[in-house]
Amino acid sequence: MTRVRIDAADPAEPDARALIAELAAELTRVTGHFTATSYAPEDAHTPRSLFVIARDPADDRALGCGAIRALPGGPEGVAELKRMYARPGTHGVGHAILTHLEDAARTFGYTELWLETGVENERGLRFYERHGYATIPNFGPYVGHPEATCRGKRLVDA
Fold first, then answer.
1. What range defines the domain where residue 93 resides?
2. Sequence-ordered list of residues with C-beta below 8 angstroms from that of 72, at least 6 positions apart, any chain
3. CA 86, CA 63: separation in Å to the nearest integer?
4. What is the pLDDT of residues 104-127, one digit of tens each?
5. Considering only CA atoms, which of 126, 106, 104 is closest in space to residue 117?
6. Please, which of 52, 72, 142, 156 could form a disulfide with 148 given CB 3.0 to 4.6 Å?
7. What pLDDT digit, counting tens, does each position of 42-82 carry?
8. Is 4 exposed, middle or buried (0-12, 13-18, 19+ CB in 10 A)?
9. Is the Cβ–Cβ distance between 79 and 108 less than 8 Å?
10. Are 31 and 142 in contact (CB under 8 A)?
11. DSSP letter at 40?
12. Could you tell me what percent of the chain has a pLDDT over 90?
């Protein structure tokens, strides 16, 4: 497992932009599309939102990123998981980022995390399944889009 330090960051900073560009290229390769407009850097600066970068503590190299934000137009207790990415060869970094964001979501008072990815993103879907994310009906802008699939996870006991 790669050692990692996770820091809050601005998604407009150079390391964040590089990671998001890599994510965009990978999702475009796997699914045929990437919607850059579904998350803007200013989303990280809204209440109960967070963007993080995972770094190698030895050399400060950026290894991955992820974000949570209030679900636009969604239920009060639901946050949306966005921009999850770990560079290839960084075993365990995605898990560390996801765990960090789930803990932050609980701290912010969220009871659920929802996400969307492409139905062709088999690697991502397996990752989320391993971490307890189950299929939910497509929400918000993903309703009526058969190329999209949504997942959700309860963060607290009912």
1. 5-154
2. 80, 140
3. 6
4. 999 999 999 999 998 988 999 999
5. 126
6. 142
7. 888 899 999 999 999 999 999 999 999 998 787 889 999 99
8. buried
9. yes
10. no
11. -
12. 69
